[in-house]
Amino acid sequence: MNIRPSRLFVCDSMKDRDERTEEEWRETLPRERYQVLRLKGTERPFTGTLLRNKENGVYACAGCGAELFRSDDKYDSGSGWPSFLAPISEDRVEERSDVSHGTARTEIVCARCGGHLGHVFDDGPRPTGRRYCVNSLSLDFDKRE
Ligand code: FE
């Protein structure tokens, strides 16, 4: 099948959804990213490559390339996963109720491809009070000046 690099999917409009089948995702994503993005896995805390990244840039979905978070909104939550105060815009990230593992949480997924990002909590610092807790494996960092 035709494997396309994720960068080709970058676009400004969230209307242009990436609707690869699960089989296509399995064939196009590296195994560990597939495990998190499509099977809703969680990387072990304090292991992600982007946890301590403090460079200026944009964090894009590792599945489809949609730009999701800015370095300006990243902060150290102490949780062991990259944490953000907010997405680039509200329409980039969708929230879904998640009652797995015996707890009620709010899952966050990429609005463009449905890829699992992590969870959002209401214990973040000001000004938003929110903690978008995201797996490094769900993100690609694009350094900007
Ligand atoms: Fe995506």
Helix/strand/pairing class, anyone?
Answer: mainly beta
Q: Largest beta sheet, briefly?
A: 6 strands, antiparallel
CATH superfamily: Peptide methionine sulfoxide reductase
User: Which strand order does the major sheet show?
Assistant: 3-4-8-7-6-5
Rg value: 14 Å
Overview of this structure, please?
The protein contains 2 helices and 9 strands. By secondary structure, the chain is mainly beta. The chain has one domain: Metal Binding Protein, Guanine Nucleotide Exchange Factor, Chain A, CATH 2.170.150.20. β3 and β4 form a beta hairpin. The N terminus is likely disordered. Bound molecules: fe (iii) ion (FE).
Give a topology summary.
Elements: H1 22-28, H2 31-37, E1 57-61, E2 67-70, E3 74-75, E4 83-84, E5 93-98, E6 105-110, E7 116-121, E8 131-134, E9 139-143
Antiparallel strand pairs: 1-2, 1-9, 3-4, 4-8, 5-6, 6-7, 7-8
The structure holds fe (iii) ion.
